[in-house]
Amino acid sequence: MKNSGGLITRAGLYWLTALMLLTQLPHVFNLPWWISLSSVALVLAKLALHRHGSDRRWFRPAVVVALALLGAFLLHWQYGYLLGRDPCVALLSLLMALKFSETRQRRDVTLLICLAGFLLFTRFFYSQSPLTAALTLPALLAMGGCLYVLRDQTDYPGLRAVLLLVGKLLIQGIPLAAILFVLFPRLTGPLWSLPADAGTALSGLSDSLAPGMVSQLSRSGEVAFRVEFDDAPPAQADLYWRGPVFEVFDGHRWSGAQQNLLTEPQTVPAQGELSHYTVTLEAHRQRWLFALDQAVTLPQQLHGAVSQAPLARLSQSRQLLATRTVDSAIRYRLSSAVSDRFGDLQPALQRNLQLNDNNPATLALGRRLRAEHADDSELVGAALRYFREQPFFYTLRPDLLGDAPVDEFLFRTRRGFCEHYASAFSYLMRAAGIPARVVTGYQGGEMNGDYLIVRQSNAHAWSEVWLNNHWQRIDPTAAVAPSRIESGPAAALAHDEPVPSVLRPLNGWMHSLQLGADALNYRWRRYVVDFGAERQRSLFEFAGFPSPQPWQVLSVILLLAGLWALVILKLPALRLPRTHDAATLWARYRTRLKSAGLALGKQHGPNGVCEMATEIWPRHRQHFAAISQAYIQARYSADSRDPALRREAERRLREALRALPSAYQLRRSHPAHATTGHVLWRFQHWLTH
Predict the structure, then answer these.
(1) Catalytic-role residue among 27, 50, 460, 620
(2) How far apart are CA 650 and CA 633, in angstroms?
(3) Most buried of 4, 69, 363, 385, CB within 10 angstroms?
(4) Rounded CA gap, 508 and 602, in Å?
């Protein structure tokens, strides 16, 4: 990494440059564009200026400090704060590039390697997918190469040899990592549970509902959650995933109401066949969880150890509310009654009848329906016929609505998405004297093998009305566009309306590739990322050790690690014949000369190698002669029979090899390299040798 003067060699600088760039690569899509651009520019500028010897003049300590302060100020200006995940990672990336720009000494290199390892570690704060793990492998190889060059300051065997050695070490370390992963005591919670910053936008349902909000969300192809059913999944038309419930309407926007949380949800009357399933919910920075209508048990968290405190409570409107915001992915299990109706122990019907007078035409229609139909069920049927028979259209591009949104939608535009129909229908029911509210969540999903994928594009809104002393789900969107419930949003759009890319059906192989990638990511998260204390405890019970003591676990770890170390150390020795130390040193010497461009064959002995090397590099004549003489004395002379004299000859051989320039330096001083150029010379050498 450095020569006798303490400066970084060119080979060391190249390895450090690769490490800096490959460590920055996984963060390209997480950091501000100007941070990534500035970091890469600093690294490349250092590399270019170092070749001309002017890097010290440009990257003075005062300049580096000024750039660091400027970067911190710009990050604070962009984020509004500095103590958070995103600004801290961005600042670390910039500071690492600035440190590289002024790196000269060995201690600077050691610090850079540590910083690069920590920056690479922070990538898992954003994603724990297999792709993220794969993107870290090139940086790990570069880090190993830097450590190799840092260890050996004189002999650089070449890029290929270093990569092969580092790759071999990484492969040998996989069993040790697996042993520690399975047996080392797990934390009680997920390791990668660092919450996202407050300024980071997450896709998901909102805590209120206004026209156009769900239609915008339906354009997103991000995964909302995944579901594994214990038995066969319900029919597509029954997959209503209940989320926020809105009971307060101010004439423009629906919002929730303060409610009491039920402690015994299983006692609330529910009808329908029970379905047992497990949900893996992505972070959405809200408190609500999603359950198949209607949840009859409280969710049990399966991520890490099961806490004694409940994960969530069920509200009076049958909405699952977690005890804290969902800032990281969680996995929970619960049961639901697959039904479109349920009772209520404490119905608060008065707030579901509240009206405002800014939609007079809808109020008049509701009163007329009430006058014509005394029975509530008949009135609901008449309202659905109105939606079905009138020229209503299901569209992702509804017209803008004014101060009387319900009136304008029902009697003028008649073009809307599910939130338009749910909002108008609920208001119409209240106008007719029937308690009603709006429920948002997701409808449908796509099976991928043994689990269901529910995306943001499956976002939906529907109504619930109070009929015959129970809440009845009414989906007015199904009356206008029944294909939306059976086949998804794309099937319900008009033929002349452009379909967003996330809703378009993919070709066969592309769709299979997308589902395969999602399945790989899901399995990785389930079996690797979510391997917590509870799953480790189950593994110990399966192995016959339900409650192992710490010393027992440590003993097993040390035993398995020791056995693997013996395998690594002993097998090569058993497989390869034993050689003298002098022969090993001579083989390394020949490899160095071959890497430098000398064409050696098996027929060339010590004297022949010395003559050929001296002809190419006459300035190192003494080194070549000393190496050949020491090797001959250690292997072929009468002194080789005396152990003491042989060890002395081997010592002189090692010293002579240490004094010889590295293969990289010999290659740079090769006459053919100087006349034809590096690339052309390497190609010529490859053709001829």
Answers:
(1) 460
(2) 9
(3) 363
(4) 57
Alpha helices in 494-640 (DSSP H): 508-524, 533-542, 550-575, 581-596, 606-616, 621-635
Provide the 10 A C-beta neighbour count for residue 555.
12
Whose structure tokens read 């010592």? 651
Pick from 175, 98, 293, 201: nearest CA to 566: 175
What's the token pair of residue 572?
């090569």
Q: Do residues 343 and 268 lie in contact, with contact meaning Cβ atoms separated by under 8 Å?
A: yes
Reported as a single tens digit per residue, the pLDDT across 285-324 is: 888 899 998 888 888 877 544 444 678 888 888 888 888 8
Q: Which two tokens stand for residue 644?
A: 């003491």
Q: Give me the catalytic one of 86, 293, 475, 530.
A: 475
Q: Is 344 a catalytic residue?
A: no
Task: Scan for tokens 């405190």, then name that residue.
Answer: 309
418 has catalytic annotation: yes
DSSP state, 50? H
Q: Which phi-psi region, left, alpha or beta, contains residue 145 (left: φ > 0; alpha: ψ -120 to 50)?
A: alpha
Question: What phi and psi, each to the nearest 5 degrees, are found at residue 140?
Answer: -65, -40
Helical segments of 152-277, H only: 159-183, 213-217
Angstrom distances, CA of residue 420 to CA of 32, 205, 399: 37, 15, 11
Active-site choice (55, 303, 376, 418): 418
**φ, ψ for residue 200 (rounded to 5)?**
-80, 130
pLDDT at 438 over 70: yes
Closest C-alpha among 63, 90, 95, 68 to residue 79 = 90
Is 460 marked active-site? yes
Backbone angles phi, psi at 36, to 5 degrees: -60, -45
Kindly give, in sequence order, each residue whose CB lies less than 8 Å from that of residue 391, ignoring residues fewer than 6 positions away: 414
